[in-house]
Amino acid sequence: MADLPDDPAFRRRLQEHRESWQFSRRPPRIETPGPGQESVWDYPRPPEVREAGASLKVVFAGEVIAATDRGLKVVETAGAPVYHFPADDVREGVLHPSSAATFCEWKGEARYFDVVHRGKTATRAAYTYPDPLDDLGQGYGRISGMIVFYADPMDEVWVGDERATPQPGGYYAGWVTSKITGPIKGAPGSEGW
């Protein structure tokens, strides 16, 4: 787990980003969860690491490239759960490091992979937090080195026996199932949620 750098400018920028979220900005109509469902509006911010609670599977180029019963999920206010696979539960050779990286104010730097299998390539379709920040005590160290797949470029993604769909908008890697209610951020008009 990464400690925060001893750089006052970095720490100031990080704190500004963490505080910029508008806690009071919520959509006018939040769906009420039914039995066995969770509202994404009951998820915490900063995000929290939880057990996935179901088997996870990714199909790409017609074959299962990742499957686990040891997955984790990261839940965050307004977003669909983001599922993390242990790296040894991902088919060897399908992840090709990309030069792309992003930075999350809570978890730190994400490094991306292209997914390549049987002549098919999905660019920047997976990522990992190789050395997540864990200064908030939220357990982000648990996701170190685990692999996240975006649902949209994959043929199929599964949570238990339910085929999941991508979180709206293409930026977030959440998987949407019938177990969650929204509205879910990512679609136009959801900026700032």
From TrEMBL:
Gene3D superfamilies hit by this protein? Domain of unknown function (DUF427)
Residue span of region Disordered: 1-42
Question: What range(s) does the DUF427 domain occupy?
Answer: 57-151
Top-rank lineage group of the source organism = Bacteria
**InterPro entries per the record?**
DUF427 (IPR007361), DUF427_sf (IPR038694)
Protein name per the record: DUF427 domain-containing protein
What organism is this sequence from?
Parvularcula mediterranea
